[in-house]
Specification:
The complex is a heterodimer. Chain A is mostly helical. Chain A has one domain (11-271). Chain A contains 13 helices and no strands. Chain A has helices at 7-26, 35-55, 65-92, 94-99, 105-132, 144-168, 171-186, 193-199, 201-209, 211-223, 231-234, 245-265, 268-271. Residues 1-7 of chain A have low confidence and may be disordered. By secondary structure, chain B is of the alpha/beta class. Chain B has helices at residues 28-37, 71-78, 111-121, 126-140, 155-168, 185-198, 211-217, 235-246; strands at residues 7-21, 42-56, 60-64, 86-91, 95-98, 173-177, 203-207, 220-225, 228-233. In chain B, the strands form two sheets. Chain B has a six-stranded mixed β-sheet with strand order 5-6-7-3-8-9, with helices on both faces. Chain B has a three-stranded antiparallel β-sheet with strand order 2-1-4. The longest helix of chain B has 15 residues, at 126-140. Classes of the chains: A mainly alpha, B alpha/beta. The interface between A and B is medium-sized, with 28 and 30 residues.
């Protein structure tokens, strides 16, 4: 299934058209429109902030805790939206796949790009919040796009793998739902990792081997406060290799996911 | 005379079979259950059985056959939606498939946006669509409506737009499933006139049940029965064989 080179540009056109359509239709018929891309994560943040920071008084000793929390919820939402939309993409676009021949990966990528647009808008809000809260800008802010890219690659790998399985076994949708619930608590979003580290160091280290935790902690470190515990500083004192586990997971996921997707994509039109 | 024209589609020993789930093998539970019990969970059905033919440039080919004979599977394999299981399909030129009209049409987008989206799905760049856009809109006679949402188009107007994209998209080979004319009487006449005019000037493959159309437009017809080429020849011979078989 070699795709001739001259078609490559047209694949980009298709990707652009599909993404534009997705984004345009997402908030179709709502009064506030695109504003929801901002309001939804902000409201989720407000709820978590009231419950965890104000009522339960978690994270009191972390500087700029509201921004710190906002970083966690925003990038978790990004991961969640990316994977959910990506896994569902082949099924929701089933009508196209059954009737037209085009590179199938475009459907998955276009579904995830809407999440990318959303997170970029939210990143602007985070930066504004950070400045208002008195965070001093630093050169490490420049690392944030790189970290976002890492998280995106990870989501894309998962979306390719599970999306391909989901074509035949729709159970994946439900399994992923439950798994996401579990993952939410396995990633230090609402609780500070220092809380886990103070009782069980091994547990904290395992949590930090998860690429999602690594990215969120690194973004907090680069953007909000240097008092963040990161995978790089906390894991692998005895053996250096442990520090690279999250990035290895990300690369393996992408390679495995796209290989599997490519292998299975020949049969999508028949199976969907 | 036709033998001199270059071959644009070459189908060689094409086989295709589908695995049809016997008891509902959909879902993970059933898949695991079946594997444990050693049940295959599907029966294999041959849909295309050793099909070979060449189509030359500017031929207007009608593919006929009963429901379930494999016509649509053949068309989808030509369009590369399905992959050949054995054998090969070689295509020389750009192929514009219309298995269904208006694939990817979205009611919430405007007529114009839908044309560009549909074009992108068929593999045309925006620049290429720019050059085709006016012709498409003029043929559909929908210029005053193009900035309105598709959901506000009447259903007749929607198929007119979809159909106009199909025949105005500049591909070398046109694949059509069952559609030759849409819309009201006047527009239908426009469609049939169009096909009469391009006969012998463009490569068209048409899957149909309408023997009248085969005789009117095609200069070659292929009869498919149980996944095999039963007859390949002059439209008149093929339609007569078809009528003899199933009255």
């Amino acid at each position: 299934m070699a795709i001739p080179n001259f078609l490559y540009k047209n694949n980009r056109v298709l990707l652009k058209e599909l993404t534009k359509t997705d984004f345009k239709l997402r908030y179709q018929g709502s009064v506030l429109g695109y504003l929801w891309a901002l309001l939804r994560p902000l409201m989720m943040f407000a709820i978590l902030y009231i419950v965890f920071a104000k009522l339960l008084r978690i994270g009191g000793d972390i500087p700029h805790y509201p921004v710190y929390l906002l970083v966690g919820t925003t990038f978790w939402s990004f991961f969640s939206e990316c994977t959910n939309q990506g896994i569902q993409a082949m099924v929701t676009r089933g009508d196209l796949i059954r009737k037209i021949c085009f590179p199938k990966y475009i459907v998955v990528v276009s579904a995830t790009l809407t999440a990318v647009i959303n997170v970029l808008i939210n990143l602007v809000v985070i930066v504004i919040f950070a400045l208002i809260d008195g965070v001093t800008p630093s050169w490490t802010w420049l690392l944030v796009p790189l970290l976002m890219f890492e998280l995106y690659i990870f989501s894309l790998g998962i979306a390719f793998l599970l999306g391909a399985i989901n074509v035949k076994y729709r159970d994946i949708t439900s399994i992923w739902d439950v798994l996401m619930q579990a993952l939410f608590y396995a990633v230090p979003i609402i609780y500070p990792i220092s809380m886990v580290a103070s009782t069980n160091i091994t547990a904290a280290k395992i949590i930090l081997l998860n690429p999602i935790s690594q990215v969120i902690q690194d973004i907090r470190y680069s953007l909000v406060t240097k008092e963040t515990i990161t995978t790089w500083h906390f894991v692998g004192e005895e053996n250096f290799i442990w520090k690279f586990i999250p990035i290895i997971i990300v690369i393996v996921m992408l390679v495995w996911g796209s290989w599997y997707f490519r292998k299975k994509s020949k049969k999508f039109a028949e199976e969907i | 005379m036709k033998e001199e024209a270059p071959v644009v589609i070459s189908v060689k020993n094409l086989h295709k079979s589908f695995k049809l789930p016997t008891e509902r093998a959909w879902g993970l539970k059933q898949a695991i259950f079946n594997r444990l019990k050693g049940i295959k969970g599907y029966t294999e059905q041959k849909v295309l059985d050793n099909i070979s033919f060449d189509i030359h440039q500017n031929e207007f080919v009608g593919i006929v056959g009963r429901n379930g004979s494999g016509k649509s599977t053949l068309l989808k394999t030509l369009a590369k939606i399905y992959f050949p299981e054995k054998g090969s399909v070689d295509i020389n030129g750009t192929l514009v498939p219309f298995i269904e009209l208006g694939v990817g049409f979205n009611p919430e987008l405007s007529g114009r946006e839908n044309v560009y989206l549909n074009g992108a799905l068929l593999g045309f760049s925006n620049k290429e669509m720019d050059t085709m856009y006016d012709e498409i809109v003029d043929f559909a006679e929908l210029r005053p409506f193009m900035d309105q949402k598709l959901k506000n188009f009447s259903s007749g107007m929607q198929v007119r737009l979809a159909f106009s994209i199909a025949i105005r998209a500049r591909g070398d080979i046109l694949l059509l499933d069952e559609v030759l004319a849409v819309g009201d009487a006047e527009f239908q006449k426009k469609c049939t006139d169009y096909f009469a005019a391009i006969k012998g000037k463009q490569t068209v493959i048409l899957v149909t049940h309408d023997m009248g159309n085969v005789e009117r437009y095609c200069n070659r017809a292929i009869l498919i029965e149980e996944g095999k080429v039963k007859l390949d020849g002059k439209p008149k011979e093929v339609t007569e064989a078809y009528k003899k078989l199933w009255g």
